[in-house]
Amino acid sequence: MRKKIQSSYQEVPGTGILPAEYQLLEPNNQEEPSVVIAFIKKRCTLLFILPLSLFFFNICSAQTTDSFSIKKRTWAMAGGQAAFYAGSLLALNQAWYANYPSAPLHSFDDSREWLQVDKTGHAWTAYQLSRGTYGMWKWATQNEKKAALLSGISSLGYMTVIEFLDGKSAEWGWSWSDIGANFTGTGLFLSQQLAWKEQRIYLKWSFHPGSYSEPDLKARANQLFGKSWYEQMLKDYNTQTYWLSANIHSFFKDSKIPKWLNLSIGYGADGLWGGEENIAKNAAGQVTFDRTDIKRIRQFYLAPDIDFTRIPTKKKWLKTVFYCLNSLKMPAPALMLNSSGKLKGYFLYF
To answer: What Cα–Cα distance (Å) separates residue 222 from each residue in 18, 211, 226, 322?
Structure first.
């Protein structure tokens, strides 16, 4: 059970550490920064909705076009999505927001935190949610433009409601940079679907487990990111990379380039041990963690990738698997250039 406790940590401007009166006690007694928690709940929501959406679409697409009229399917889809979104928002409210005092709608500026890796994650979430619901709307409306618009609007509306709930909670706040990232992700999907009637440039995500040998860094990582790999996967921005993965053949349709081959540009970061700086203080103002000697570095990647949706198959279950896999960047050789000017090659990077 989560509960409020009096913690030895207080918020340091820009670090994202929870104020003492709103700290959370996890089963492993590790405290988490609120900015990370806010992103986790949105990421976990997507991780639940996206596979369910794809599964539902796979079942729906197996129906013949004569099974229902377009009007009936559209109303069924609208009602089903509204009910599902409403139910998930109610569950989210009870699981997260009900444990904290409400407040008048307010905003806060977290645009400078985590070298914007968290904002890139917001864009990825919005993009994948739009992509996941598009197939269902296409089945329902049998209209490309309507399906694209409805998937984009409904997904963006859903994430905006979550941001509104953040803004009404004393623990968090409405973040305009989150909203901007959500619009970016939805816009990436919608613009391509309207212009090309396909996704030529995917927004993907990859993760590699972090390894922190120094005792103070290991303790800090356990506190901020958790001890297990799946906790790190959601929380540790040092281990996440986001990619724009472009399908080469879709831009050169007369070429002999393999239809499944993509070229991807990635963005990540390293040296992140707080929102804006690598320091933390306790309630008395004493420094409890100080690794300002560690440079916070942006990382830019170039690597080949695979567009699984362009691999021919007649099996519906395999198409669904490929559709889901296209949200992830596949391991491949990569070149990395960081903000310090260091160039590094990887035989296999994920």
So the answer is: 16, 11, 4, 34
pLDDT along the chain (350 residues), means of 10: 32 37 36 48 54 54 57 80 82 76 88 93 93 86 89 91 87 90 96 96 94 89 85 89 97 95 97 91 86 96 97 90 93 97 95
Q: What angle do CA 49, 52, 55 make, to 5 degrees?
A: 150
Backbone angles phi, psi at 20, to 5 degrees: -60, -40
Answer yes or no: are the C-beta atoms of 305 and 204 closer than 8 Å: yes
The number of C-alpha atoms within 13 Å of 338 and in the hemisphere containing its C-beta is 15
Instruction: Lay out the sheet containing 240-247: strands in order across.
Output: 201-207, 240-247, 261-270, 297-306, 332-338, 343-349
Please name the residue ranges forming H helices in 197-228: 215-225
Task: Round to the nearest angstrom and report the end-to-end CA distance of the chain.
Answer: 34
Tell which phi-psi region holds residue 196, choosing left (phi > 0), alpha (psi between -120 and 50) or beta: alpha
